[in-house]
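User: My collaborator and I are trying to settle a disagreement about how two of our proteins should look. Neither of us wants to argue from intuition anymore, so we agreed to look at predicted structures for both before our next call. Could you fold the first one, then the second, and keep them clearly separated?

Assistant: That sounds like a sensible way to settle it. I'll keep them separate. The first protein:
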Amino acid sequence: MKKLKRSARLVEMTQYLLFRPHTLIPLTTFAERYNSAKSSISEDLAIIKEVCESEGLGDLLTLAGAAGGVKFIPKVSKAQSEIFMVDICRQLEQPERVLPGGYMYMSDLLGRPMILNEIGKMFATAFAGRDIDVVMTVETKGIPLAYATATFLNLPVVIVRRDNKVTEGSAVSINYVSGSNKRIQTMSLSRRALKEEAKVLIIDDFMRAGGTIHGMMDLLSEFRATVKGVGVFVDSDEVEEHLVEDYISLARLTHVDSRSKQVKVVLGNYFESDQ
């Protein structure tokens, strides 16, 4: 790469780091890339670190030694997240979102990349300190959320299917009880999709009683995998008991009336002081 002026190099280095989150990058990579001395690269990284941390964009970690380098950890402050989620809650309260059975239409929000990026960044911030191998979700609405989260954690995504597809190869299937309607349903996961004893982060769009997520946990036990965290976009407190206790939610549905189209959505438990 041709030698750049410092201002241009700072821009290019920042972009390089943003697109490689949670990845250890040796200083020699930048030194060779920009044909610059390591001392100059270190000074540039110090500037980037100061700006990222002061503006709440994330942390730039420096690891010393021969095997060291820098690693960018994307983060967003709870204050910024709260402002964003308050607006999302107001949008979720629109009467036309109410569907039969007390469900909510959210596909339009989850189809907007800017919203997905913010949600993914929030989940990535919440689970940044945990040792995770993959992000898992069940088809279909949780898929974009899982990919958004995985992007900021730099992790692969594993998708649990409602039925076994021939293109997935041999799979493990289980029956589980849906927490909301008590129906017996099936989910499956390809044996090639997840290595045994993997550490998994589960992400889903909506949790009423938690039957689907509890089913995913049972499925993971067949792989001797460990659940390192559970994140849901919206949970509901209109149930007597959740089958999943340890989870993080960004928004909470507290009331929905299918007849009057009245909806009340508040901030989720992520914004509580003990989270």
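The second protein, kept apart from the first:
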Amino acid sequence: MSYDLSQLGWDDHFASSYHRFDRADATPGRVLRADRGVCTVLTATGVTRASLGGSVMIDAARDPSLLPCSGDWVVLRTWLDRRTTLEHVLPRRTALIRRTADKDSSGQVLAANMDTVAVVEPIHPEPDDARVERLLALAWESGADPLLVLTKSDTTRDPGAIARQLGELAPGVPVLPVSVQRGDGVGELRRYVAPGRTLALLGRSGAGKSTLANALAGATVMPVQAIRDADGKGRHTTAYRNLVVLDGGGAVIDTPGIRGVGLLDTEGGLERAFADVIDLAGRCRFDDCGHDTEPGCAVQGALADGSLQPRRLANWRKLRREVEVESGRRSARLARPRRAPAPPSPRRR
């Protein structure tokens, strides 16, 4: 069975990056799923499994975010013994990266080369404003276009009102209420998965990401776990990142359900997510305004007239401090000299 890779986003940009690796035993492909040391890759001739080659492992030892993940375009090599190895990850056009839990502030790639990142937040039991702001900062930083998808819109009488309310937290971001059960909004969401385009789904467990992927595919392609009705939470049903190819072209990347997302070098994404606060800060009388008691502070003025909520300002400050700390840690880690390998022990005679 053959596949037209252009339907998944293969274009002149990636073809140009691949050109220097092109040889008789090499072929390009897109990663569907990445497991420990092995990737499932779609090529023009079908799906294959490939172990990681030496160059990829060397790059990943320097920076774990360079490991292949769902959505990556890669170079495969077929050996005489019929083994297939993944030799190179082509430069990413976009990348969704979160901070890992370690103290060195390394990054974990959740998805790559997507055109749109949909922050998926359930209306039931209640949207979490702070989580939406954090995930939108991550989405903006990825380089892709953010989208806010409100699932389970059938659980409220007026989903439009909730969409307008959350839209105030997402300057410049489309907000789409969706009910898979009733089919509301699914057709509009499908427009983001046109041939050659990729949509990544980002949100907590139980938000409805896998349900959305199934609805877009028109079939059960991702497992869905029943959730507790009281709090809307469920188990981590999607513990891996998986790219789903849709009939007619396009792809959806279902990222794992996440309880928390650490921000890394996301200063630019943070500014886009809090564009209203940044705009107010630019109107302050003093360039170094701390937005507390300084005269002529536009931020404090917005708090006084109610156009800016104290909670939003507090979360902006919290996330900005987090990014500053993690950026400092990451810079320190990258500046540390590498340890030279230990010399071999002398042999005993």
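Some points you might bring to the call about the second protein. The chain has ten helices and 13 strands. Residues 310-335 form the longest helix (26 residues).
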